[in-house]
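Form 7-S
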Amino acid sequence: MVAPAKRPITGSGSLLISYRLSRSTPILIIGAGKEAAGRLYYALDASAPVIIIAPDDNHVDPTLRKRILEWPQMVEWRKRDWSIQDLNDNIDIVFSCLESLEESQKIYLACKERHLLCNCADLPSCCDFYFPSTLRRGPVQIAVSTNGNGPRMAARIRKVIDDVLPQSVGLAVEKIGDLRRKLQFATGGIGGIDAGKRMSWVSQLCDSWSWEELAALSDTDIEYLIKEFEKGSPTPLTPSSRINGKY
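Output:
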């Protein structure tokens, strides 16, 4: 990650990393209301297994109940109140989605004692992480956060980005990912003496071609580009060469 050249260090930017959820160790969601339904959606979208702990009563959100039925291989529902024994080493992270803020505070403090990351709905002071407003186009994921100050404002900012982001961005990134993997394989894998040259070469391609041109890359195009790199071409071939029928 390259530091921005012009922006001075200002502090307070606490959201430094994106956390990759485990696909084997489950997320624990305590509660079954509307907030829990939202947490479950994003957990399933990240292919994370989930344990939900909440009584089966009239407080259960209908959407949450529907998703539990639709994803039985990913969601385990323990139909009872939570207990301290639920916070253990077999859990990845914890979401408290209870109406009782006092109860959520108890969960947060118990998580701290056990070194578990925790997010408590409507309690910014009891959150080790926040839920950003996210925009997704294929492999592209853009997260907007206000550091807990205004979730609705984050959603508004996300819409602005969505309105101006080209529709071809997701496919373009998929094509570049395919090119990078095939180029690595063709030149001896990750690292090696060509690693720096390869990174610079692909970077020039990313910077000089439009989103639409990158999205239009075919398997034949990618094979030809790899051959150009192997021949020692100083810069990536321009799209005009493909359009003019050179291959």
